[in-house]
Design goal:
The chain is α+β, with helices and mostly antiparallel strands. β3 and β4 form a beta hairpin. Helix content is about 25%, strand content about 25%.
């Protein structure tokens, strides 16, 4: 899929077009969720994702999102960003919408989408995300947990 947006922006879900250097630079250096993440870890995350969508202006990658899913019942939206100079133009909502609703597989309403966010709840709520029910509190297993303890 390639989709043109206004002002010379484009969405593309071709994994071969992803600029790993640009994605790594943002995630490891500017994001609050992946600061310090190694290039190899970013590469493996991109390669292991069932769907990646890049946001481009010309040849420059200016945004990114990825989804990890079984394609049928559950999916996790991760590593979503639009570079700061390009925010406030509706590009983030189009990037997330394409990641969620494009790409075939089960229909979007059949998949239970999950995500973590500390700063973009307003954007995600425009696409149907709500706070999780209190009766099902979120549990996480932290990175580096040693199950032999």
């Amino acid at each position: 899929m390639r989709r043109e947006l206004a002002d010379g922006f484009e969405l593309d879900d071709d994994p071969g077009r992803i600029d790993l250097q640009a994605v790594h630079a943002f995630i490891s250096g500017q994001s609050y969720w992946g600061r310090g993440r190694s290039r190899e870890l970013v590469k493996r995350a991109v390669e292991g994702s069932q769907r990646v969508v890049g946001l481009y202006r010309g040849e420059d990658q200016v945004g990114f999102a990825r989804a990890v899913t079984d394609g049928t019942t559950v999916a996790y939206l991760a590593d979503v960003y639009v570079l700061e100079p390009y925010r406030g133009r509706g590009l983030g909502i189009e990037l997330v919408r394409e990641t969620l609703d494009g790409g075939g597989g089960a229909g979007p309403s059949e998949i239970h989408w999950l995500l973590h966010t500390a700063d973009a709840a307003g954007l995600y709520s425009r696409l149907g995300f709500v706070d999780g029910p209190a009766r099902y509190p979120l549990m996480e297993r932290p990175r580096g947990y040693d199950s032999s303890r």
